[in-house]
TrEMBL record, chains A, B:
Annotated InterPro entries: Glutathione-S-Trfase_C-like, Glutathione-S-Trfase_C_sf, GST_Zeta_C
Source species of the chain: Lactuca saligna (Willowleaf lettuce)
Domain of life where this protein originates: Eukaryota
Family: Belongs to the GST superfamily. Zeta family.
Protein name: GST C-terminal domain-containing protein
Any Pfam family matching the protein: GST_C_2
PROSITE patterns: GST_CTER
UniProt GO MF annotations: glutathione transferase activity; maleylacetoacetate isomerase activity
GO BP: glutathione metabolic process; L-phenylalanine catabolic process
Domain GST C-terminal as annotated: residue spans: 44-169
Length: 170, 170
């Protein structure tokens, strides 16, 4: 499983046989069906739905709103301070929803004691926001705990952007 | 299948046994696995991946950027004209990606001659943007053709917001 999570977590782009690049979410869905022996999703339907929900909160309600083109637009047209406030507000709303969603399911990781789809989406979002914006995680105790747990997952640490061969040095 | 698509297309919220509301994308995923006899996804893996991609372009790269909270923010902090330009630019990027993605797969509908997941995401996005913003679809011939096709799908027409019992009259 870790290898597959890796493919997903590290990859900036994967290409299938006909050379078509894919986004992160569809990569996961594609890999999951192409490699059914390495599940990122639990078999239990309700728990699977929680994983979908968590992944989708990140990919539809947080990430698109805090990505660079949006932040640059706000920085240029409203102001640099507004940019930070925007991130705190939008990511804060998403994180609050995730805290509520995961509270009855979280174990060592987001939905139990095994890494699963939810973690694959949560880890880069939480790590990225804390590093790039000194995002204050103190209101989000569950996500803060997951953030700590991710520090001990070698696969996540090895997948950090700065460890990749094409990470820009300057 | 139509009934299920309808559940999905119409629903502002569905609730499972424990009363948890869900977002649109996870509703689809949940319904698909709960009612496997009414597939929204083709069996062919590559075509399925195209459906995932199209759905995700809508749910992660278009919808979050053109939703009301974002547009209100831009309207208030940058200006009303900026709001329209923003929608044209962001939705335009997403629509251009969809044109390219679907060009080798589209039939009567997005990925063939049957309605599928891609259509369930595309229809409300295309219809919503054309109605709310007079969005100029002329650069997007394939999506314009789909938009015409959707006008003849009774289920889509019946699911229009103004046909719902809780549609605000004023």
């Amino acid at each position: 499983m870790m290898m597959m999570m890796w493919d997903l977590f590290v990859a900036q782009s994967i290409r299938d046989e006909d050379g078509e690049g894919k986004g992160k979410k569809e990569k996961q869905e594609y890999l999951e069906e192409k490699y059914p022996n390495h599940p990122l999703l639990p078999h239990d339907l309700a728990k699977k739905a929680i994983n979908y929900q968590a992944a989708n909160i990140v990919s539809s309600s947080i990430q698109p709103l805090v990505m660079l083109p949006v932040l640059n637009y706000i920085g240029e047209n409203v102001g640099p301070e507004a940019k930070i406030q925007w991130v705190q507000k939008q990511a804060g709303k998403g994180f609050a929803a995730l805290e509520k969603l995961l509270k009855d399911y979280a174990g060592k990781y987001a939905t139990g004691d095994e890494m699963s789809l939810a973690d694959v989406f949560l880890a880069p979002q939480i790590i990225g926001l804390s590093q790039r914006f000194n995002f204050d995680m103190s209101e989000f105790p569950l996500l803060s705990r997951l953030n700590e747990a991710y520090k001990h997952v070698a696969a996540i640490q090895d997948a950090m952007p700065e460890k990749q061969p094409d990470f820009p040095i300057n």
